[in-house]
Give the backbone structure.
Amino acid sequence: MNRSTTTLAEAAPLPRKSSYFRSRWNAPLAGYLFIAPWLIGFLALTAYPLFLSLYYSFTDYTLMQPMQWIGSRNYERIFTADPKFIQSAKVTVMYVLASVPLKLAAALFVAMILSKAVRGISAYRTAIYFPSLIGGSIGVSLLWRNIFGVEGIFNKLIAVFGIEGKSWITSPDTALGTLILLTVWQFGSTMVIFLAGLKQIPNDLYEASSVDGAGKRTQFFRITLPMLSPILYFNLIMAVIGAFQMFTSAFVITNGGPMNSTYVYAMYLYERAFSRYELGYASALAWIMLVAIVAATVVISYTSKYWVFYETDTGGKQRK
Amino acid sequence: MLKWKRSLSVLAMTAILGTLAACGGGGNGANNAGAATAAPASTDAAATTAPSSGEPVKLRIMWWGSQPRHEATLAALDLYTKNNPNVTFEPEYSGMDGYLDKLSTQAAANNAPDIVQLDPGWMPDWMARKQLTELAPEVDVSKFDEKLLAGGQLDGKQYAVPLGSVAFGMVYDKAAMDKLGIANPANGWTWDDFFALAKESQAKLPDGQYFTLDYAGNYFMYSAYQYARGKGQVITDDGHFNVDEATYLEWTRKFEELRTEGLVPPADVNASDKENDPQMDLLAAGKVLFRYSFSNNLGTWDSIKPGAYALVTMPRAEEAGGWLKPSMFLAVSKNSKHAEEAKKFINWFVNDPEAAQVTQTFRGLPANKDNAALLEANMSELDKIGLGLLRATEPDGQTWSAGAGGWTNFVDKDWVLVRDQLSFGKSTPEEAYKQLKEAAQSYEK
């Protein structure tokens, strides 16, 4: 930046030296031009709303009335006098803890099956990935509601085995589980990334190890998992962030019920903002979620050095 | 190489244009949000200066309802466009589920449709938040019942017109009851009769069929019971929690009994009920015999199982249990750019006899008395049953009130939570009462 301004000052009294001007300017200008779309989008659609919401979180803002600065009162209220905050945070943490490992395990499992060289494998891959394209949509949520309803297909299926079903989505014990199952089923993009990672593992490692007498189990834990750990690390972080923000299925399928068993944090936030119009309060809730996500990510990154293995690492695990 | 370069620059241009467009949109949104407080004034100014007719106008209109109501409303919109070729419509219609969420979100973004259908219960909120435009003088309300108009007024100004009047009562599966040999109820029956009939039906009901829904934690049904006991409104007009503890415990304990005797559905089935949904409505599915209903809703169930259902007044005790209320309101949102045209349409929709012929009674018996008389003269059998409930409720029915503003969430969320906890047996009537009372505190002013 500094260099550019000095160039401008030098260039001003010598306007005719346009070639000099251009040659010194072209490179950075083109660079800025190329990142401009992203930069403008980021500033206008991410940074500005982000900090505006930080500002709102210190106000009492109901959209229809002028906003009032109330300092940290929103935060105080959330932490001291808001049972719904505690309830929804609890549900969300449970959801994250249950859905993330299950989803990763399912994605890895399917990726390993699909990494085999079988005839027509790409057709299988497409077929298995396909549901994830429409996974987060309202339509699938509605479908899920019908599958697990009292008269749903799932109950008819287990009735064949003589098991009497119930309304899974309207029982407090099973509702969250049903939503977790929906998330696990949407493993497609995670699976694709795993698949790419699996393809990168050199085959010689497996060959060499099998010569040394390693079984499938040993190979999985000694070769596949360590070699895949950077990918696992990435998928873990993405899945955690996604799980914290879970909204659609809880909103459409169960509407937070029954007995608030699926009342996830994002739903509570939505309710405060758009049915009670308490935008200041909702902004404060949003910032708490942001801090929670950042904290979770930092914790994962911190532990990553104990279990993520990079090929460039000389000694495998970096324990010092 | 050259080709690659060219396609890259095309790509870059597209990206830039795309971002600029998105950015423009974002900027507008932010401006609107920031100018929210100034908006009413500017809208009024726009309304008075807007050309009154001739210019092509597209009005967005949003309502909820069942299929027959959608069809009738669409037909009315077509008719209006035929008479006023410059006005066309962009209808947004759906079931009740999620309607308020969608509308609230749009309103929060200053993007509500020009014309909105509102539930009487929401009116205090919407008027207090100044989200509606005054309808006078374009909309003529001289033919309307004063009692129905009051719900759409604030500080003497009319912000919404009632579309019809309906009676709150019960619907029952007459066909199933006749088959099972259970006596039909009669208008004017009491809550004692209701619970006695439930007991009587116990021996006759087959497995998987129940007398009524689990209404222990239902806001509307409990309101009807508290009224019948002479204890007044559950939430007073000045915004106070007014649940009579003794009456509430009496009510929840009676349903506790029905629950243990298997006369109401198990909790998970009860929670899966969705009124008027052909698949999930437990009355339509033949699982329950009784549920509450408004007099104009019979048509929806009848379309699922023709001729099977009948209406009866809400059971009474010392006082009547049911009431008449405006079915719903129609209003113009404050950010409408065509407020003038929207008001003209509403005036036609509620006052024109031709419009009444098209819209029939799908929003209740028209609130415009002339139109009501016109429709009564040649009514279908189904509408006559609804009218029967209306007339039976009229003489000593309770006075309906929109209540205080700001309690919508209390009714939609807090009562539902208590309902689930009661029906899943996770709380006692005493705890439920305490919980409601505590939840109410954050709504009381």
